[in-house]
Design a protein that fits this description.
Elements (H helix, E strand, L loop, with lengths): L1 H22 L5 H18 L2 E7 L10 E4 L5 H7 L5 E5 L8 H7 L3 E3 L4 H16 L4 E3 L19 H7 L3 E9 L17 H10 L3 E7 L10 H16 L5
Parallel strand pairs: 1-7, 2-5, 2-6, 3-4, 3-5
Antiparallel strand pairs: 6-7
Helix pairs in contact: 1-2, 1-4, 2-3, 5-6
GO molecular function: acyltransferase activity
Pathway: Lipid metabolism
Keywords: Acyltransferase, Lipid biosynthesis, Lipid metabolism, Membrane, Transferase, Transmembrane, Transmembrane helix
């Protein structure tokens, strides 16, 4: 059974690669977003992950808002893409993943080399231009994944792009639940775990629900990036019921 599931994932990845190479160069952004959303929905279905969306944004959704979220798993990207196909900022390690890394790049993922200040500056400037051009940008300000029930400090650097582009920040919360509504441990992608190991655990595990919660936007006019990062983290922690240690 696990071999069959891996085969289905492989075929779906190949279909995604073909779409990126042959279709994406010739379609407009709306069609591209539709294809990304549909592909993400199907990938999660193959992985027996259901998505439940909750809206706590308390107002109209700003299409230009920069999306930020807590970070549990590589699944997070595709969970968010089922609602809002985005250009994600992700750590450069993902680019080296077989098939999926290339696919993420062709889907518009922006790769960041950790510890290189010049790289952060280059990407930050690019993000401002992309936001101003109408692209939807998302990133995980913790900088890495963490186990469910924990929220690491939010790095503030990339929040500056939202401030300079004059758009609000839109926090999201993602959590993975089992049939009893408890955190589903199979979703955790931490430590030295490889993508293949994580995929195997997910495919062997009981069905899970990815709960995606959209929180109220945080205005950035006249704000400092550290304050925006602090407010975003506090909103995520409140939704998760997490308190400072």
């Amino acid at each position: 059974m696990i071999v069959w599931h891996f085969f289905r994932v492989f075929i779906h990845l190949m279909a995604g690669l073909l779409t990126c190479a042959v279709v994406f160069p010739f379609v407009h952004d709306d069609r591209r977003d539709y294809l990304v959303r549909r592909w993400s929905v199907k990938l999660l279905a193959i992985c027996t992950v259901d998505v439940a969306f909750k809206d706590k944004s308390e107002g109209a959704v700003n299409a230009s808002a920069m999306i930020v979220s807590n970070h549990i798993s590589w699944l997070d990207i595709f969970v968010i893409n089922t609602l809002h196909p985005c250009h994600f900022v992700a750590k450069s390690d993902i680019r080296n993943w077989p098939l999926l890394g290339w696919l993420c790049e062709k889907a518009g993922t922006i790769f960041l080399v950790r510890g290189r200040q010049r790289d952060v500056r280059r990407i930050y400037e690019g993000l401002v231009h992309q936001i101003q051009a109408g692209k939807r940008i998302a990133f995980f300000p913790e900088g890495t994944t963490t186990s469910q029930g924990n929220v690491l400090s939010f790095h503030a650097n990339l929040f500056e792009a939202a401030i300079e582009a004059h758009v609000p920040v839109q926090p999201f919360v993602v959590r993975y639940l089992d049939a009893q509504g408890q955190f589903h441990s199979a979703a955790d992608f931490i430590g030295d775990m490889t993508f293949a190991e994580s995929m195997r655990i997910i495919l062997l595990a009981p069905r899970m629900t990815a709960e995606l919660v959209r929180l109220p936007t945080i205005p950035t006019d006249g704000a400092h990036r550290r304050d925006v990062a602090r407010l975003a983290r506090a909103a995520v922690m409140r939704e998760l019921g997490v308190t400072e240690a």
